[in-house]
Amino acid sequence: MPDVRGCHLPDDLLYDVENHIWFKEIDDGKVRLGMTTIATAMAGELVAFTPKRVGRKVKEGKSCATVESGKWVGPAKSIASGEVVAVNEDLVAKPNIANDDPYSSWMVELKPDDWDSVKGSLTSGTDVAPKYEAKMDADGFAGCG
């Protein structure tokens, strides 16, 4: 598992480094999305998580959820368009569980419109460390520890 400045990034995920979102392929052509450790470290303790409802469409580059912490309120953007097929109700009820483990505290599951083209634009976990080093330098983020 790559570790960039104290931030863990599991090998088995795909990453949208720009938006600090991870993707995991699951059954029936669906994908699960969540926030990276970098996202939760930068935001601080999460106090609210409001996902799009099941059945709603997410447009490419638009929000699949709104996330709020004591420092920040903003969109969790998905580079994949598609229909929301599930939301993590545990995260809705207790948003700060994502601060403890953002990789088990997924946000939404999507049935993507064109997963093959999106997948090609994501970075694999085994290759993500250099991109995150550069992103953290650009953002002036020291790390997760």
Describe the structure.
This protein has 145 residues and is of the alpha+beta class. It has a domain at 28-118: RNA polymerase II/Efflux pump adaptor protein, barrel-sandwich hybrid domain (OB fold (Dihydrolipoamide Acetyltransferase, E2P), Beta Barrel), CATH 2.40.50. 23% of the residues lie in helices and 36% in strands. The chain has 5 helices and 12 strands. The strands form 3 sheets. A 7-stranded antiparallel beta sheet has the order 7-10-11-5-4-3-12. Strands 6-8-9 form a 3-stranded antiparallel beta sheet. Strands 1-2 form a two-stranded antiparallel sheet. A hairpin with a 3-residue loop joins strand 8 and strand 9. The longest helix is centred in the C-terminal third of the chain and has 12 residues, at 128-139. The radius of gyration is 14 Å and the shape is globular. The two termini are 16 Å apart. The mean pLDDT is 95.
Structural topology:
Blueprint: E1 3-4, E2 7-8, E3 14-16, E4 21-25, E5 31-35, H1 37-43, E6 46-51, E7 57-58, E8 62-69, E9 73-78, E10 82-87, H2 89-93, H3 97-100, E11 108-112, H4 115-119, E12 123-124, H5 128-139
Antiparallel strand pairs: 1-2, 3-4, 3-12, 4-5, 5-11, 6-8, 7-10, 8-9, 10-11
Q: What is the third-level CATH name, the topology of the domain at 28-118?
A: OB fold (Dihydrolipoamide Acetyltransferase, E2P)
As a percent range, the share of strand residues is: 35-45%
Helix/strand class: alpha+beta
Radius of gyration, CA atoms, in whole angstroms: 14 Å
Please, how many helices?
Answer: 5
Helix content: 10-25%
Number of strands: 12
What is the element string, with H for helices and E for strands? EEEEEHEEEEEHHEHEH
Q: If strands are numbered along the chain, what order do they take across the biggest sheet?
A: 7-10-11-5-4-3-12
Question: What is the CATH architecture descriptor of the domain at 28-118?
Answer: Beta Barrel
- pLDDT under 50 segments (min length 5)? none
Q: CATH homologous superfamily name of the domain at 28-118?
A: RNA polymerase II/Efflux pump adaptor protein, barrel-sandwich hybrid domain
